[in-house]
Amino acid sequence: MSATRIVYGFHSVTAQLRRHAAGIQEIYLDASRHDVRIKNISRLAAEHQVRLLKVNAARLDGMTRNARHQGVAARVTLAKLANDLDDIIDHLSVPALLLILDGVQDPHNLGACLRVADAFGVHAVIAPKDHAVGITPTVSKVACGAAESVPYVMVINLARTLRELKERGVWVVGADQSSTTDIYKVKLERGGVAWVFGAEGEGMRRLTREHCDELARIPMIGSVESLNVSVATGICLAETRRRGYG
Fold it and tell me: What CATH number should be reported for the domain whose range is 85-242?
């Protein structure tokens, strides 16, 4: 039997319906709600022939562990995304564009990073098993469908993974505000690029930083010293795409 996950909230369930309705086993709606948003999601589910179940709020609270589900939740089959990095890269017809998160443990940050990764066509998001959050219902909700569309690969030894990527011709760039090179001047090799971001406050771990080919900073002219990791990710990926990469 395939593994399943509960996703909840209007944005997440609607995104799942539009991107991969076949992966939804059933949708649960608060039986006491009859507003426009409930009607819209019911219509969309009917169009995709997805089973709808009217349940009470208490059941939704239990399914989502009392999260802010907004009266809607769905049971989805976990996407059979490649979870082996070599397999992902071997099947690409274009140079790899990868996002590496070293130490991001907040589910809201991970969800936002996955959403950004999906928007810019990242082929996989990579994180260490010991220093990262997994895909939780909160991550799925914040990601608005991206948790089911972008491969999230958790590796045992991040430093070794970085070495293996470099051996495959992937250029590893670490985001580091102490660097003297800004992201608009950093070199991006055509054989593949992996952007590395550390946890907020702590940044990349020493060994991770040492395995980067280059470090780059986001130039900032205001009084704020740092950006949320998902915002920084979006800026760097946007610059990568602006240069015509991918």
Answer: 3.40.1280.10
